[in-house]
């Protein structure tokens, strides 16, 4: 009976789950950062800007360490030219103490150019979503984080994900999730049960974990990263939530960046022709080109042929077509299709695609 309930409830809610996937696969404010500063002095601004810029370089490159690179080090020594805007905001923290926060935005063009000059990769904002199932053993018992409980842990998780530019998606914790996965099953780190409960979300990566805090204040965590049929286990510990959450987030960022980032000089910059159908109007055309040229793997998307709702685009690549396919598979906006047997194209193409726009 439980299995029947799981199937029925999942079928009723799968469309809602899929609708959340697209938004979760884009990192917002990739080139922005914020931090606390002691004052609004020029020295504090320069120091804060350097710290924030280093964080941006880490997120955009997908590398944990960038300061040792001489090109990056030179940029961090003089961060002001990279800034497009900054502002201060005063507020009180949880203890009622006044704090001064510096919020900065940096030029994507200059950041990317510096990373290329440094020989470091660029990882664009279109990134795989990670569904996170997390349970914590607290004084209130074992509770799912994000299900109206564990707000401090959830904030720490989101901060760690933001540090590395990892897109985290929490479950809806609705009736379907309650039927599909119990706290006991997650605490036992049952990979099969978590995979089954996660099917409705269709995210390419899953992070499952459990955390406990000892009376000394120390945290320990046990994790499993799932991708398709593969899984990897790791453990972590620390005196703060951030310390115990950092290892799985770092692992995910390293693994994703290795797959989706584009290294300077990695490709042959070869031009590749693709056929795209489903272009209904100029707005669709503009959205398609903007989308493609926003991917780190594509320098330019030039139209070489147009006929009614179909066109041929010449892609100038920073890498190979296989990496393009990896990017396109993330959000389902440009879907692979098959050739029309009745259609004769004026140019040879490497692939056929259907433009779905914002839809999956």
UniProtKB/TrEMBL annotation:
Segment forming the signal sequence: 1-24
InterPro entries according to UniProt: DUF2066
Superkingdom, taxonomy of origin: Bacteria
Keywords: Signal
Official protein name in the record: DUF2066 domain-containing protein
């Amino acid at each position: 009976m439980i299995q029947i309930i799981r199937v029925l409830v999942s079928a009723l809610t799968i469309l809602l789950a899929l609708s959340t996937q697209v938004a979760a696969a884009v990192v917002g404010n990739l080139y922005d950062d914020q931090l606390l500063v002691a004052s609004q002095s020029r020295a504090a601004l320069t120091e804060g800007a350097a710290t924030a810029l280093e964080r941006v370089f880490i997120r955009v490159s997908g590398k944990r360490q960038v300061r040792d690179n001489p090109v990056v080090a030179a940029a961090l020594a003089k961060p002001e030219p990279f800034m497009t805007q900054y502002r201060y905001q005063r507020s009180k923290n949880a203890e009622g103490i006044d704090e001064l926060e510096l919020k900065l935005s940096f030029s994507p063009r200059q950041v990317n150019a510096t990373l290329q000059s440094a020989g470091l990769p660029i990882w664009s904002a279109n990134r795989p979503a990670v569904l996170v199932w997390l349970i914590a053993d607290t004084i209130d018992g074992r509770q799912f984080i994000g299900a109206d409980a564990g707000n401090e842990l959830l904030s720490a998780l989101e901060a760690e994900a933001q540090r590395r530019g990892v897109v985290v998606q929490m479950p809806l914790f609705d009736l379907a999730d309650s039927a599909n996965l119990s706290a006991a099953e997650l605490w036992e780190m049952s990979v099969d049960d978590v995979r089954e409960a996660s099917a409705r979300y269709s995210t390419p990566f899953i992070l499952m974990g459990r955390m406990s805090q000892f009376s000394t204040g120390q945290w320990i965590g046990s994790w499993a990263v799932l991708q398709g049929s593969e899984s990897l286990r790791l453990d972590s510990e620390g005196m703060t939530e951030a310390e115990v959450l950092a290892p799985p987030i770092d692992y995910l960022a390293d693994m994703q960046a290795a797959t989706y980032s584009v290294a300077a000089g990695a490709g042959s910059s070869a031009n590749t022709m693709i056929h795209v159908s489903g272009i209904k109007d100029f707005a669709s055309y503009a959205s398609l080109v903007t989308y493609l040229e926003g991917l780190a793997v594509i320098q330019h998307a030039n139209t070489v042929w147009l006929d009614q709702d179909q066109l041929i685009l010449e892609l100038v690549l920073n890498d190979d077509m296989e990496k393009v396919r990896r990017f396109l598979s993330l959000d389902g906006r440009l879907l692979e299709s098959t050739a029309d047997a009745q259609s004769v194209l004026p140019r040879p193409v490497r692939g056929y695609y259907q433009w779905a726009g914002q839809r999956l």
